[in-house]
Amino acid sequence: MTDTQWWRQAVGYQIYPQSFFDSNQDGIGDLPGIQAKVAYLQSLGVDFVWISSFYASGHVDSGYDVTNYRDVDPQFGTLADFDALIQALHAAGLKVVLDLALNHTSDQHPWFQAARRAKDDPHHDYYIWQPSDGQTPPNNWESVFGDSAWTANPATGEAYLHSFAVAQPDLNWENPAVQREMQAIIQWWADRGVDGFRLDGVTHLKKNADFADVANPRTDYARDFAGTAPYLAALKPVLTRNHLLVIGEAGGVDMATAKQWLDPEQGIFDLLLEFDHVHFWEANESKLPMTALRENLSKWQLALENHAWNALFIENHDLPRAVSYYGDGTAYPRRSAQALGMWYMLMKGTPFIYQGQELGLPNAHFHHIQDYRDLDSLNYYRRQLAAGTPETAVLGQLATKSRDNARTPMPWTPDQYGGFSTHQPWIGLTPGLATRNVQVEQSDPHSVLTFYQQLIQLKKSVPALQLGRYELIDTHDNQLYVYRRSYNGDNWQVVVNMSSQLATTQEFDLTASELILTNLRVDADSDDQEIQPWEARLYHLRKLEQ
Ligand code: NOJ
Prior knowledge:
Blueprint: E1 12-15, H1 31-35, H2 38-44, E2 48-51, E3 55-57, E4 66-72, H3 79-91, E5 95-101, H4 110-115, E6 129-131, E7 150-153, E8 158-161, H5 176-191, E9 196-200, H6 225-241, E10 245-249, H7 255-262, E11 271-273, H8 276-283, H9 290-303, E12 311-312, H10 322-325, H11 333-345, E13 350-354, H12 375-386, H13 391-401, H14 438-442, H15 448-461, H16 463-467, E14 469-472, E15 480-487, E16 490-497, E17 503-504, E18 514-518, E19 530-531, E20 536-540
Parallel strand pairs: 1-2, 1-13, 2-5, 5-9, 9-10, 10-11, 12-13
Antiparallel strand pairs: 3-4, 6-8, 7-8, 14-15, 15-16, 16-20, 17-19, 18-20
Helix pairs in contact: 5-6, 11-15, 12-13
The protein binds 1-deoxynojirimycin (NOJ).
C-alpha cells in the first residue's frame, strides 16, 4: 500500500449538510455547523468526511442542481466558512471529500440560461438537444424521477435531455469544453485543499448517440460504459495530479467495468459505490434473500480481492434507513442496527457511515404528504395518485422507501429539535428522540453509537480486518451471514444472525476461539451454535490451524 492509498485503511463518514447541525438557527444545517461538530467526528474515530453537495443551487434536488460550482450556497454559508471548515477538519486529522454532480447542472446555471436562448450561443452545445415540436418527446427515454426525460425549449424549437429532474439539464460530455470546465472546477477545489471527490451519477454520462427508443426507458439510454471511458480519461490527469481520492457513484455498473474503472494503473476510481446489494433488498422487501446476498457480496469481495478495493455501505442520503429496511426496527431496533453494522463494516473494503446510522436511527416514517420535501417522493406521490393508487397505500410506500426517511436532522440531545437547531427544522425529526441521540448514546455502553465506535476502532487497529482475505463460511440457511478474515496467519470470524428468529448451526466450531465483540449483553445466552435474533459476534480464531 502506498501513501496515496491512505483510504484503504480509513473509515468514511457521509454528512448531509442540511441536516447535520444548524449553527445560525435558521432551521437548516450549515458548514459552520459541521465545524462545530469536529470533536464528535474525532470521537467516532472516522478518517474522512464526504460532504453531500453544498454548492450554490436551485434547491430542486437538494443541492444536486448546481447553479455555481465555485461557490457555497448561502443557506450553508460562504467560501470563507468552507475554508475555515477544511482547516478545522484537517487540523483534527480528517480528510475532506466533496460531492460533484457531473451529469447535469441546474436549469438556473448561467451555462444553461445562455444555452437555451439560441442555437448559436457558445453554451448551447454544453447540453443535449433534439428537435421538438413542443408536444411530443423526441423518444421514449424517461427520467430517474419519472416522466419523460425531455422538456421542450420553444426558443430554439428543441427539447433538452434531463436524466433527473426537469430543472437538471444533462451536460453534453461529448463536448470537450464541458470536460475542460469540470477539470477546472476540480482543480479549483483541489487548490482549496480538498482531498477527494465523490463523482455523482457517473453511469449516466454517456447517452445513446442514435436517440432511438429503448427497451427499458429508465436505464437503457445511458449504460454505455465503454463510451464513458473517454470522459473519465479526460478527468484522470487533474485527479491524479492532485492525489485525490476518487469515489464514483456507479449505479448499474457491471463487474467487468468496475474492475477496469478501479484498476490501480489504468482506471480512474479508487472506490466505487455500486448498488447490487441494495437492489437485492429492494426486490425482496419482506425477507432478506440470504443465499443471493451471500453470493452477491462474496462475488464482489473476491472479484476485487487482489486487484482493487471495495467500498462498503448500507445507507446514504438516497436510501431508507438500514435498521427499518433490512433490520428489525420494531422488535430489535438496537440489536439489528448493531448487527448490520458489524456485518458490512468488517468485510474487506473502506466502510462508509451515513450520519445518524451510528445512532441506529430508523426511518422517519412520515404520515402526511406535507411532511415530505424530496422531489422524487413528491413526484412519485403525484404519479401514483394520478394512476388511481389509494393515498394510504402511496403514503405507506413512501414511509418505507422515501429518501426523506434518512434526511431528517441529526439528533444531538433529547431537547427540542434534537439540539440540531432552536428554530423549527426544514424537515421533521425521526421519532424516538428521547433515547436515540448523541448525548444519551455516548453515555450508554450498550448503545448503537458505542458499538459503532468499537467497530471502527477494531477495523482500524486489526490488520486482518483491514487487509485480510475474505472468505465466506456458507451456512446454507436463511439466517446467518458468516465470514472469515485472514492475514498472515491471523484469523477472525464474523457471525451475524440477520433474522429475528433464533438460528442454530453446526457449520462451524468456535470453542477454541475468543469472543472479541458481541451486541448481546454478557448475561445473554451465548451458546456457540445458537445465535440469538440479530446477534453479531466477532471471534479471534487464534488457535485455528492454517
Ligand atoms: C445522485 C445523488 O446522490 C442524488 O441525491 C441525486 O438526486 C442524483 N444523483 C441526481 O443528482
